[in-house]
Amino acid sequence: MLHTPIGKIVKSNSHIDYVCQVFGVGETPLPPTPEDYCFGAFVAVELETTSGAGATLVGLIYNTLLMNPEFGALGPRLSPRNEVEIFSPDYLAETATLLGVISIGWLDAAGRAHQGVPALAATVNCPVRPLAPDEVIDFHADKNGQPQLRYAPQLLAQNHALVAPLLLAVLDRLGELFPQSRGRLAVMRNNVAWKSIVQPAG
């Protein structure tokens, strides 16, 4: 099970919408690769609680932003990039990769999965890590081992252009993890895909 953080929470846009800054070179022994924080990836946000009992938000990566102070600077380059890394490492630290993470549920202290809007919120510097495939299965499986998506209406209610592609990516991922339910998931996927085409046109 992978528990290596890929970044940390740096701000929030709402109770369920967070911004995660991806760790760069020098901030962690093994910096994450772009594959670790791709669009539609499931992540866990480890919460800090006063009781000491662990609780974890479950979220989806829905957006990526690149922060680069060098953009728009038209002055001459005094040093090549490889020399800047040696003599001015703080300058490179000003660049950052930011991820939009939307919370879709949580895991309580006993590890039980709950889908929907969590009562607790993350705080600044909470670590963010990828969810392992078995954790994604446990989060979605009902008592009969069938996938449930009680958070789908929560996603569709967001006024964001990437929500429909996000839900399609989730359904594709669940189709791989729940092969016995591919038929049901395909019906839902077709419905979401159709609405994503018809609603903007209407």
Could you characterize the architecture of this molecule?
The model has no long low-confidence stretch (mean pLDDT 87). The protein has 202 residues and is of the alpha+beta class. It is built from six helices and seven strands. Strand 5 and strand 6 form a beta hairpin. The radius of gyration is 19 Å and the shape is globular. It is 29% helix and 24% strand. The protein has a domain at 7-143. Helix 5 runs antiparallel to helix 6 (182-201). It has a six-stranded antiparallel barrel.
Q: Roughly what is the average pLDDT, rounded to an integer? A: 87
Order of helices and strands: EEEEHHEEEHHHH
Q: Cα-atom Rg, whole angstroms?
A: 19 Å
Distance between the termini: 45 Å
Total strand segments: 7
Provide a count of the helices.
6
In one word, what is the shape?
A: globular
What proportion of the residues is helical, as a percent range?
Answer: 25-40%
Q: Per DSSP, what share of the residues sits in E-state strands of 2 or more residues?
A: 15-25%
Reading side by side through the largest sheet, how are the strands ordered?
1-2-5-4-3-7
Largest sheet: 6 strands, antiparallel, barrel
Question: What are the low-pLDDT stretches, counting only 5+ consecutive residues below 50?
Answer: none
User: Helix/strand-derived class?
Assistant: alpha+beta
